[in-house]
Amino acid sequence: MSRMVSADPAAGGTACAQARIDPESAEWVATLTAGGAEQQAALARLHELLVRIARSEMRRRSQRLRVAGPEMDDLAYQAAADALMAIIAKLGQFRGESRFTTWAYKFVIFEVSAKVGRHYWRQPVVAMAAEDWDKLPDRFGLEPARQAEWQDLAAAVRRAVEEELTERQRQVFVALVLNGVPLDALAAELGSTRNAIYKTMFDARRKLRAALAANGYLDDGSARRS
Amino acid sequence: MNQWPALERFLSTDPRDVGCAQAMELLHVYVDLVAEHSPARAAQRYPGVAAHLRACGPCGDDFDGLLAAVCTSAE
């Protein structure tokens, strides 16, 4: 299969020419826009695929989701239906940079993510306002047996959170780190987006590292590649 | 110093990280590269996406899900 894809935006590349669409993907696009019985048959086939992927993805995430049986199946059907609508609406944006099915499955995976995030608040493990700093050592794998070694560090982390972060960064840190709220669930609760919450936390992490390094608790590689 | 690896990992940020929006925009392309070639090839072509997927749990989860979907449907 021959494709031309965009260069990495992070590397400063530019989008390049229209990709060449592989035959199977071209057939999907053709039948989904054919009209009449052919289009209806393609829509039914795609819906069937999306339901299968959604159910499989719900099962994969089920341990964290705390939902099972008919309720999980219902969420999978909703995800597949919403994904199908999004795919139809955005079909003109498919440029053959990947196989059609990979592009289409992406929609249903995103729908499952969003539904799992919203579902969290039906049975939240902790309240949003909770703030239990005693959980901090456990979150960062600081063993009780070595408390004498890390207690100053833990106090410095807390101090840095309280003194260096903005109110929004602090709110996000407490929810994600102390309370263990899933990022998508937090985004849904705050009426925000995954991207915005991640960026808030990304900036907070940089600030915390800089503060801890400045006080000698960590080395001062303020930005490192993993 | 790497006395507290979990804390070090949490506080480490990669300047190449493109963020969720760009990573999700390219996820289908990235997953096809992984499925048809290799994770290394995908990471080489899109280092900013690779950096993001390593750091972001939810996007990493979506990547795992999409890759599983593609591999399953290919069987």
What can you tell me about this protein's structure?
The complex is a heterodimer of chains A (226) and B (75). Chain A is elongated, with a radius of gyration of 23 Å. Chain A has helices at residues 23-32, 36-65, 69-90, 100-119, 136-139, 147-164, 167-178, 183-190, 194-214. With 226 residues, chain A is mainly α. The relative contact order of chain A is 0.09. Chain A has 2 domains: 9-122, no CATH class; 133-214, Arc Repressor Mutant, subunit A. Chain B has 75 residues and is an all-alpha fold. Chain B has one domain (16-74). Chain B is 77% helix and 0% strand. Chain B is built from 6 helices and no strands. Chain B has helices spanning 5-11, 19-25, 27-36, 39-45, 47-55, 57-74. In chain B, helix 2 (19-25) packs across helix 5 (47-55), helix 3 crosses helix 6 and helix 5 (47-55) packs across helix 6 (57-74). The longest helix of chain B has 18 residues, at 57-74. Chain B is elongated. Chain B starts with a helix and ends with a helix. The mean pLDDT of chain B is 93. At the A-B interface, helix 2, helix 4, helix 6 and helix 9 of A face helix 1, helix 2, helix 3, helix 5 and helix 6 of B.
Q: Please, what is the average pLDDT of chain A?
A: 86
Largest interface: A-B, 56 and 52 residues
Domain count of chain A: 2
Radius of gyration of chain A: 23 Å
What string, H for helix and E for strand, traces the elements of chain A in order?
A: HHHHHHHHH
Low-confidence stretches of chain A: 1-17, 222-226
The tally of helices of chain A reads 9
End-to-end gap of chain A: 32 Å
Largest sheet of chain A: none
Secondary-structure class of chain A: mainly alpha
- Mean pLDDT across the residues of chain B is 93
Query: What proportion strand of chain A?
Result: under 5%
Helix-strand string of chain B:
HHHHHH
Helix/strand-derived class of chain B?
mainly alpha
Tags for this model:
heterodimer; A: mainly alpha; 9 helices; disordered N terminus; B: mainly alpha
